[in-house]
Write a structure and sequence with these properties.
There is one protein chain. The protein has 504 residues and is of the alpha/beta class. It folds into 2 domains: 8-315, Glycoside hydrolase 38, N terminal domain (7-stranded beta/alpha barrel, Alpha-Beta Barrel), CATH 3.20.110.10; 331-493. The protein is built from 18 helices and 14 strands. Helix 16 crosses helix 18 (485-493) and helix 17 packs across helix 18.
């Protein structure tokens, strides 16, 4: 690590994510015509973003590459387990490149890797029940350890959706920090230790904060630079890597006591998928920052280790980075949507969530009934089921969790119940509510997960819940043609796999 005349730092975070597109009945990603000329959106986003960021060219004056930069080695990033699993089996060179980039960043940034964990399948944790959010976090940690070969220091919360219970659960699982939007700070302490309102720019985004999570414990929170992140994601800053570098340095602002951190957080797909050649602008910016004598690139984990927070913060309960109304985008007609046409509403969101909650609770009660007779502790077994998803032999898993003397048929039944629980969590993937209509591609994804859970319940002789589920879906109507979600489920989900879009 070189000595700096003024130890200031720059961090760029990319949140890379795609939903689980594989059909839960066939485990295959079917053709997605909207991703043309690619076979599906995973293929397209990988070609436009994930692969290019492993070797982004910096051009010479003649337009030829004079250097290639692996952006993943220099930025902070998280990749959702669902897309990582697809990459592992379909684009293993990209998968290995990302894992290796984290190792390189660990060497570069003082033993602190740049990869952050992510709760498992991008559910809105404040809207999850306590059991689900605990499993989502534990699966995210275990999946990260399996892939990256180390414990995660930070965890990205889907849509940065947060509440006090979620932060407490992160701390219980050993997570040291997370990243939130500046408007998610409710109050902060100043240099004098006094609390003040953080609204309207009251939070200094250049430093981390301590947030109490109870029992004398704390977690660190970085509130990213909102205007800078907005310019990167939506206002054309990725058109020019030199402008991006200048904006990052300008984000350091006026002098203050101690080192400063300028940092931005956006969807990682901004770099190449949402913005063509965005990965090249990012590479240019990285190079320009590293040439400076007054600042250098870092990641959150390194900065936190070097400069622990000396101020406190309280977060806004049930808040997120992409909904002005907190977390209403994923349960009500709040007005926030993507892809909606004039006159459309999102009144369908509430009955969709209500129906899924009903299905989760009915099948959850059946799962709980296995306690002591089939599984020693069903919820403990579910938390550990991530080991099966990451390669542990099923017999080894069952030796840990099956009730003594369980026969072969009951062992298979136990595994079916555990997959049912996996599908019940997957049906809450946030994309299902993010866009404009209940007939959209993303909502079909979550409905197909529900269909698989219902199918598994039938297989094991559990409760027949489809009629009750459809009754609740009948209250959700499409803006496009007036069909109810129940009619869409019967016509499209039951008849074949859903096509998926390109995430949020």
């Amino acid at each position: 690590m070189r000595r700096l005349s003024r130890p200031d730092y720059v961090c760029i975070h990319g949140h890379f994510y795609q939903p689980a597109r594989d059909d839960p009945f066939t485990q295959e990603v079917r053709s997605e015509p909207s991703a043309a000329p690619f076979a599906n959106w995973n293929e397209r986003v990988t070609a436009e973003c994930y692969a290019p960021n492993l070797s982004a060219p910096v051009l010479a004056a003649d337009g030829e590459p004079r250097r290639r930069i692996n952006n993943f080695e220099w930025i902070s990033f998280d990749l959702g387990p669902t897309i990582l699993e697809w990459l592992k089996h379909n684009r293993n060179n990209v998968y290995r490149g990302i894992i290796d980039a984290d190792r390189a960043s660990t060497a570069r940034f003082g033993g602190h890797g740049s990869a952050m964990a992510q709760s498992y399948n991008h559910t809105i944790l404040p809207l999850s029940n306590s059991l689900d959010r605990k499993t989502q976090i534990r699966w995210g940690v275990r999946d990260f350890e399996h892939r990256f070969g180390r414990a995660p220091e930070g965890m990205w919360l889907p849509e940065t959706a947060v509440d006090a219970e979620t932060l407490r659960l992160l701390g219980e699982e050993g997570i040291l920090f997370t990243v939130l939007a500046p408007h998610q700070a409710e109050a902060v302490t100043g240099a004098d230790g006094e609390w003040r309102d953080a609204a309207d720019g009251g939070v200094d985004t250049r430093i981390p904060y301590r947030v109490s999570i109870g029992d004398g414990k704390e977690i660190a929170v970085f509130f990213y630079n909102g205007p800078l992140s907005q310019k990167i994601a939506f206002d054309g800053l990725l058109d020019d890597g030199h402008r991006l570098a200048n904006a990052l340095i300008e984000g350091l602002g006026a002098e203050r006591d101690g080192p400063r951190l300028t940092h931005a957080a956006t969807d990682g797909e901004s770099y190449g998928h949402h913005h063509r050649f965005g990965e090249m602008a990012l590479a240019v910016a990285i190079e320009e920052v590293e040439k400076r004598s007054d600042a250098r690139m870092t990641n959150y984990a390194e900065f936190l280790a070097l400069h622990p927070p000396d101020r406190e913060a309280r977060v806004v309960e049930d808040s997120s980075w992409s909904c002005a109304h907190g977390v209403e985008r994923w349960r009500s007609d709040c007005g926030c949507s993507t892809g909606a046409e004039p006159g459309w509403t999102q009144k369908w969101r509430t009955p969709l969530r209500d129906g899924l909650d009903w299905l989760r609770d009915r099948l959850g009660a059946a799962f709980e009934s296995l306690r002591g007779t089939t599984l020693i502790d069903p919820w403990e077994a579910r938390d550990d089921y991530i080991s099966v998803l990451t390669g542990t032999p099923r017999d080894e898993f069952l030796r840990r969790h099956a009730a003594p003397g369980l026969g072969a048929a009951k062992r298979e039944e136990a595994l079916a119940y555990l997959e049912m629980q996996q599908r019940l969590m997957f049906m809450y993937t946030s994309c299902g509510w993010f866009f404009g209509d209940v007939a959209g591609l993303e909502t079909l994804i979550v409905l197909r997960q529900a269909a698989r859970a219902i199918d598994l319940s039938r297989q094991v002789g559990g409760p027949d819940v489809e009629e009750g589920f459809l009754n609740r879906l009948s209250r959700a109507a499409s803006n496009i043609d007036g069909r109810t979600a129940a009619e869409i489920y019967v016509a499209e989900v039951s008849s074949g796999p859903a096509e998926a879009n390109n995430g949020e």
